[in-house]
Description:
The protein has 105 residues and is α+β, with helices and mostly antiparallel strands. The protein has 3 helices and 4 strands.
Amino acid sequence: MKTTLISAGQSLLDVCLQELGTLDALFDLADANGLSCTAVLRPGQVLQVPDSVLSRPEVVNYFAARSYRINVADAVLPAGIVVPPDEPDTMQDFLPSDFKKADFK
């Protein structure tokens, strides 16, 4: 089982799409981490990414090849949460215009 580091504004749905390639595996991801599907994630939190029969490796590979991090929320944090400094960010945020269905054939 691999792990992933959460960035500011990421939701469990974002992580599921990025790491498993489909939202169909949301319950697998939540269960592997003892979370509800609507759990609020914290920047710097590490999640376990389970193997799932529902995963779509071609979608995961698409995002990984382009260094995309799925983060559909504005990076607005609740009051009192401080984002710890970390290594320089080398990931690009995913833009819907970058995604083409033809890339998944």
